[in-house]
Amino acid sequence: MALLEIKNLSLKIGAFQALKRVDLAIDPGEIRALVGESGSGKSMTALSIMKLLPSGAKAEGQIRFNGKDILAASEADMCQLRGDDIGMVFQEPMTALNPVKTIGEQVAEGIRQHTRASRAVAEEQTCAILDRVGLPTSKFPLRRYPHELSGGQRQRVVIAIACALKPKLLIADEPTTALDVVLQAQILELLQSLVDEQKMGLLLISHDLAVVADTAHSITILRHGEVMDNGETTQILTEQTHPYTRQLAQASMHVPDRTSHQHVRSQGSLLSARNLERSYRGSRSGLFARSEDTKAVDDVSFDLQQGQSMALVGRSGCGKSTLARMILALDRPTAGEIKFGNQRIDHLKEDALRPVRQNMQVVFQDPYGSFNPRHKADRLVAEPLYLLDRPLSSSEKRDRIDAALERVGIPRKDRDKYPHEFSGGQRQRLAIARAIITEPKLIVADEPVSALDVSIRAQILDLFADLNGRLGIAYLFITHDLAVARAITDTVMIMSNGKIVERGNTGEVLRNPQSDAGRALVQASPDLHKALARRIGEQG
Amino acid sequence: MNTSTIWRENIAKALSNRSFAIGLIITGLLALIAALSFVWTPYAVGTFDIVGKLKPPSAAHWLGTDHFGRDILSMIMVGSRNSIAVAFVSVVIGAGVGIPLGLWAAARAGVIDEVLMRFNDLIFAFPALLSAVMITAVFGPGAVNAIIAIGIFNIPVFARVARGAALSLWPREYILAARASGKGAARITVEHILPNMANLLVVQATMQFSLGILAEAGLSYVGLGSQPPMPSWGRMLFEAQTMISIAPHMALFPGLAIVTTVLGLNLLGDGLRDVLDPKLWRER
Amino acid sequence: MLSYASKRVLIGFLTLLAASVVVFAVLEVVPGDPARLMLGMNATEDAVRTLQEQMGLNQPLITRYLSWLGGLLSGDLGRSYTYSVPVIDLITERVAVSLPLALISLALSTLIAIPVGLFSAARRGSLSDTATMGVAQVGVAIPNFWFALLLVYVFAVTLRLVPAGGFPGWHAGLWPGLKSLILPSIALALPQAAILARITRSALLDVLGEDYIRTARAKGLSRRKVLYRHALRNALIPVLTILGLQFAFLLAGTIIIENVFYLPGLGRLVFQAITQRDLIVVEGVVMVLVATVILVNLLVDLSYAVVDPRLRSRA
């Protein structure tokens, strides 16, 4: 008998139909991936199993866990199950732990809740499970507070809380989405080994097929609250019988066609950095004492040619965003110089920067945060026109806005809409329209697709590739996602601890990285091609 | 969707909020009564009628008369002008000085920010009553003292709200995009920061207005606010105190006037907070 | 921890210093000639000159400030012109009424507000929550001195349960003293409790929306346990902030309430001093009250660090 069996589960939140007749089953020891884009109902499925749904949610159908009817269970029964037989791990490790309680207290709390163990026994068990998830008490004493740990370490604590009592079922809701690829690989490996060891079932929720391709035994694909495809991982990925599965897989592996545009690229240096450094003063550790300065960017030099597309990859916190902000003259280096064309820009005053800014624009990660919610699309897109030497007439302005919108594929009639009326993908198109309206020579893009669903991501990458080809705009792409780097850049720089540790042709470097940091990134990166090859190989 | 339909929708949404609707009605009525008192009151507030003094509520005097035989309803009506004027001007002082200071501190950060925060600490050490005590000790009593004292105390309140909201907005990506478009701190503050925190400021202004009414009443009660013959709610209560055993209605009605006004403003503020972009408020 | 604490103490000290400059400037510099102001228009030149000398007004400003400050530090607040006694003696005598009144009210309002806030937050959206918060909403709008009048009318005038005013002095015994503080403290505490209960509830509801609450629920804790073990302590941070601010209002409220109940506290002292233009007494009382507000805010700042471990490791 299956450990968890969901049959015909429908869920309504107010008038919104979040789930429609979902079927799903997990056996003991099985890793079942639940994959879908945002809004597909993945998290709602998980919360239905835990019975932690938002108020106003109504579930129908059947959820049987270990023979028990969950939907009919009382709140007191559920309190017995949660944390004991069913554990749950959440997406955002930075906020998932109570900031005013020590990690020891938070892990022990669940243990004492269910086993009525004495303080000392609970503490012993806490030490054991923290040790198991990679936080040995010798290095991470129980009295540490969450803010003293990094994101990856906090996620380990959350896993320890969920697994402390050896649950029969573990639910992990996008447990690695907020982490960089190296941490992602580590956490997935930890979950996998815990499953093997404790013979529990794991429901692994993700928005990306590539992430679960290596880990999951079986996959359920969800879209708009309905199950699209369901089966054993190898079969799902190799056969791709369902069109939506194929669409997701292709989007995940998508590489824009850039060959036709190669001739546009001209030679000549556009941007160069020499011995760039940005250090931050150490925090005050006493009335007169200061801890040592930290160097976010340390002795970085590079050149970017006109029309060239370059990737800057590295783990989170490696200094890549700081570097980007210095290039954009939003932050000043503490040493070294930056040249744009032939002009040194790192010490220029805001007025003198205007011609430079015209030629250098930016696209950010968050399609929701990059627009003033109170301005309409046309005003938002027109903002950089402020940089032009002479003010445009209103008809000229209109023409340029229309041209920019057309280039990114936003219909002209949408110019009067507010940002919240656009979807995430459309918003990223608007951000690109804003970046190209002054016809710049360089666009710095900071993780421009990492907040988007895979299918939208593919479209936006196509758009970037197209603009690079047609307008000859050079890119500096900042990303932790090697698939993006591979898809859209000619050259790559790998950054680690503030330094550039490796650089070269994107394909070559990512195929055969020489630096430790490069190897770690490449090994950890989810890659559907490789996963498929491995699955097929296993099949024989 | 065009702008006017958005407006209409917002107004409909606002009126369906119970707090907002009730608050708006009370505040509107109060404003009407204050306006009406300029042209008409049941009796002139300056006329004494010793024979008809300390009369409980009746058909002739709805809310009764005081120890000089003055009509309490008329005095409450005229007194509302005083309360509104003092509270309003104090909010204008607080907002007019505090908001620019807060915005400036957030835009410049570093030393200026630190200096402003310490300045805030300093003013917070002087509750309005203490400032009023000092001012009155030197210049003698008057309504202006109350305005200055409450106004000064409002400055750090607005500065804090403006600074906090601005600090949470500055790291947003749309501000970075505006900086990448060559816009300076002043222009960004006007175009992006201020409009996105206007909600908070409106709500805060409503709250400070109601606190101002309470503070003014307290100051006139102890004789640090407006002086006779101008009627004020606080002083009416002071005069009622010695009569409490024989004419409790003298204490009841001015107090109810204060409670109703403050309640109306607080409901309006609460309603506004829910109606206007509740998300930003939480992020503060 | 130490660095945070030492920074707050330093800031508190500097604020106090700046406040002393403000008080000195308003009461001794702005009036031009404080001696003439105190004696009034009809005073003889001789009397003015004597007082000027007594106050040291013929010395340069900076010397006057420094000697005044030196006096403050050694507990010498000058001599009252009208009472002819050291101001510090007047103040200590009056603080014995005002301070217990403020502290009892603070304790009372906290003891009422936090349970009420918890009660309401735990039953969010229920009839009892709506009713409680409705009462609190009205409570916030009630001026404490008016509430005091109503209490006097009901409990002293009509029911004759407690004295309507006056203070027998602590030498008459603890209970008679406390008895005369009952109504004043209730009048002060209830409106404050209404504010605090609303803040507590909304802080709790904010915290209940946090991710770590879901983590705690996923551990198998009941709603109630989550509220007490996880939400309350996190919600204390905004509650403490308001508590600190409220103390300033409470102190101001004490001064006003003393007038309703004819209590011989700092409030009565300062109003008498204003009527008699005794600037030296006003200066002393204001300085003591300002120092108290600053001290309380410092204590609030320090208690943040007890509640929130993140502050302990940050400067």
TrEMBL record, chain A:
Subcellular location: Cell inner membrane
Pfam families (UniProt xref): ABC_tran
GO-annotated molecular function: ATP binding; ATP hydrolysis activity
Any single GO CC term annotated in Swiss-Prot or TrEMBL for this entry: plasma membrane
Residue ranges occupied by any ABC transporter domain in the UniProt entry: 4-249, 271-522
Keywords assigned: ATP-binding, Nucleotide-binding, Transport
Domain of life according to the entry: Bacteria
Chief location bin: membrane
Membrane-topology annotation of the record: Peripheral membrane protein
BP-aspect Gene Ontology terms: transmembrane transport
Family the UniProt entry places it in: Belongs to the ABC transporter superfamily.
UniProt name for this protein: Microcin ABC transporter ATP-binding protein
Organism of this sequence: Phyllobacterium sophorae
UniProtKB/TrEMBL annotation, chain B:
Transcription recorded as keyword: no
Subcellular location: Cell membrane
Topology class, membrane: Multi-pass membrane protein
Entry keywords, A to Z: Cell membrane, Membrane, Transmembrane, Transmembrane helix, Transport
GO cellular component: plasma membrane
Transport found in the keyword field: yes
GO BP: transmembrane transport
PROSITE patterns recorded: ABC_TM1
Database matches in InterPro entries: BP-dependent_transpt_permease, MetI-like, MetI-like_sf
Name under which the protein is recorded: Peptide ABC transporter permease
UniProtKB/TrEMBL annotation, chain C:
Family: Belongs to the binding-protein-dependent transport system permease family.
Keywords: Cell membrane, Membrane, Transmembrane, Transmembrane helix, Transport
Superkingdom field: Bacteria
Position of the signal peptide: none
A GO MF term: dipeptide transmembrane transporter activity
Keyword Transmembrane helix: yes
Primary location recorded for the protein, binned into one broad class: membrane
Entries under Gene3D superfamilies matching the protein: MetI-like
Intracellular or extracellular location(s): Cell membrane
Transmembrane segments: 99-122, 134-161, 181-199, 235-257, 285-307
Domain ABC transmembrane type-1: 95-300
PROSITE patterns in UniProt: ABC_TM1
Name used for this protein in its record: Peptide ABC transporter
InterPro entries: BPD_transp_1_N (IPR045621), MetI-like (IPR000515), MetI-like_sf (IPR035906)
Lineage, broadest ranks: Bacteria, Pseudomonadati, Pseudomonadota, Alphaproteobacteria, Hyphomicrobiales
Annotated membrane topology: Multi-pass membrane protein
PANTHER family cross-referenced by the UniProt entry: DIPEPTIDE TRANSPORT SYSTEM PERMEASE PROTEIN DPPB-RELATED
Protein source organism: Phyllobacterium sophorae
GO CC annotation, single: plasma membrane
